[in-house]
Please model this.
Amino acid sequence: MSIYGRIRRTRAKLPGDVLAPQVVIFTASNLLGSSTRAAPPASEALREIERRNVPLVLSSRGTRAELEPLRRKIGHAHPFITEGGGGLFIPDAYFSMRLEGAKRVGRYLCVPFGRSSQEAGAAIENIARQAGAEVVRYAEMNAREIARNTGMTEHNAEGSREREFSERFFFAGNADLAASPFEKIASQHHWQIRRFEPFCELCSGNDEGKAVRYLMRVYREALRSRVRSVAVGASFEDFTLLAASDQAFIVSPSSDSFDKKLLSRLPNAARINLPGAVGWNQALLKVLGRV
Model:
């Protein structure tokens, strides 16, 4: 049974089978709990979101394979964003309209914003040669090796390997000497490096804000309504997600502590002085209480 109280037996579909919602919620998925289960404190808001048929869009720095277990656990049937805005996935038949730039990927229509993992892998090799750096890519490692280096379980490591819009790697030699020329060459070729110690991640075009704006245009056209967007996040990694929304809520990463860099960029965002799933639950109940 899902944390909603039951797993949906039918797919969510807009706009035909629900009343037009007044708000679409975007959230960093890690605020709900782990990759495999939602934290109990989030349950009240999740039930209310389902009762009101409010679209809940999950956004993750992780891969589609990493996000799917949580989606199954909570019975999630709405669009979701993966790899920090690399791709937007929309369930089949969710919208009864043509989606610009969408490609069919399994049970979904995918709108890619980032370059493919294959392109990223080839770029890592090319940049490493130019920089004189020795690198090892995720694709060259098995799940056990990744788990040993990250502390993940092997199951989660396997999900992390299934990248679609980025590639991870580490410097096999002297990282301090190799990193600077590697990053300089990567930037010249419009690649971005994100750090997930002990790995780096190479991507290009990944942008959660682009995914939010694209999806809101589609919702508004499909629903023929000026539906609002609300986003909830906690760290600077969530900045583009929050900045692209009509209303942003920042949850405290820990009690009475906020990401100062994020606050400086979003001074008008609402602040929730409770951490994690508890703060997330409070933020969403506030939103739902106003619609």
